[in-house]
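Bench notes, afternoon.
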Amino acid sequence: MTSPLATLRRMARHDDGRVAVFYAILAPCLIAMLGLVIDGGGKIRALQRADNIAAEAARAGGQAINAPEAILGGRKEVDPDLAVAAAHAYIAAAGATCSPGCVTIDADLQHLTVRVQIHYQTVVLGAFGVDQMEVTGTATATLLSG
């Protein structure tokens, strides 16, 4: 007659390795899901930062008006050269990148649009080959007078 302990050992041998294989398959999937949550949140924060930098750069450019004409009571217009320089200076100070032509001024000289790029370095997804994500922020400033 076999002891109950020997019977339990014999039954346990039928499951040898099954749990290890299950976790070997499941662990990378769980890590990938964790990476999507962590790095997805980081990408959203980077997108918000890019939008904020673009908005502030557009405001900085929008403040560069053609002062002599405005002082004399003329139409309030953006000085294109000063506005582009002010927007680029703000973008550089904020640590974002801006390709040539990322600051555009409408023909009416009342609207200034800025587009910036930010690179987000991933925390977890780097283990799966995704080292960084690029996000773009866009904002438009409109001159108001009154």
